[in-house]
Amino acid sequence: MGEKDITEKMLADYNDVFADIVNVLMFKGKRVLDEFALENIKDKSQFKINKQIHEEERDIAKIIKGQNIRIALLGLEHQTDIDEDEVFRVIAYDGVSYKSELLNNRKERYPVITLVLYFGEKRWNKAKSLYEALDIKDEWKPYVNDYKINLFEISYLEPEQIQMFESDFKIRFSARELFQINPKSPHIIKVSPSFSALSALFESLSGSPCVSPVT
């Protein structure tokens, strides 16, 4: 994972930012997801190929809880580069999550939702569904389940969408514009609780320190 992927992940891992991203991208700004209903989890998968054990872990995974029950698992995947196999990666992550539910003695069953946040400057031009990723003959198609990924091109969100954000995630868009004008100039932007994550993100964008915390 590249530096920008890591810093974007650090910012989105804050519950208020995570909930804000979900509410804007999934629910058009409606405050459906409460940050206080979120619980961090580690969502890992292990598999064996050619006698070697491999392990994969979601960038961010959180459980939505309500009255002591699990309502859903939400995962965020961060991409700076276009990945032609992203569909298969998401299928693998979601499949492992559902497998974990089957093995859970509590018998809980809940939906698994993955959002792919693509931060690249180029438009995404690869498959966003299984049908697009595979060459399927027409006679086979009715028997192949399609699988679509929820991919959002963050660099191409409309201004009205950006205005819906209420967390520090909104600040990253202002910083991006500043750094495009003069990437090396010092900029002072006052932020709140997720200061360290924003600071790291801005430094990766500009190559120099540029954020001061609220005092």
How would you describe this structure to a colleague?
With 215 residues, the chain is of the alpha/beta class. It contains seven helices and nine strands, in the order H-H-E-E-E-E-E-H-E-H-E-H-H-E-H-E. The chain has helices at residues 3-12, 15-27, 86-103, 130-133, 159-162, 171-181, 195-206, and strands at residues 38-40, 44-49, 52-57, 60-66, 69-79, 112-118, 150-153, 189-191, 211-213. A five-stranded mixed β-sheet has the order 1-4-5-6-7, with helices on both faces. It has a two-stranded antiparallel ribbon with strand order 2-3. The longest helix has 18 residues, at 86-103. The chain starts with a helix and ends with a strand.
In short:
With 215 residues, the protein is α/β, with parallel strands linked by helices. The chain has helices spanning 3-12, 15-27, 86-103, 130-133, 159-162, 171-181, 195-206; strands spanning 38-40, 44-49, 52-57, 60-66, 69-79, 112-118, 150-153, 189-191, 211-213.
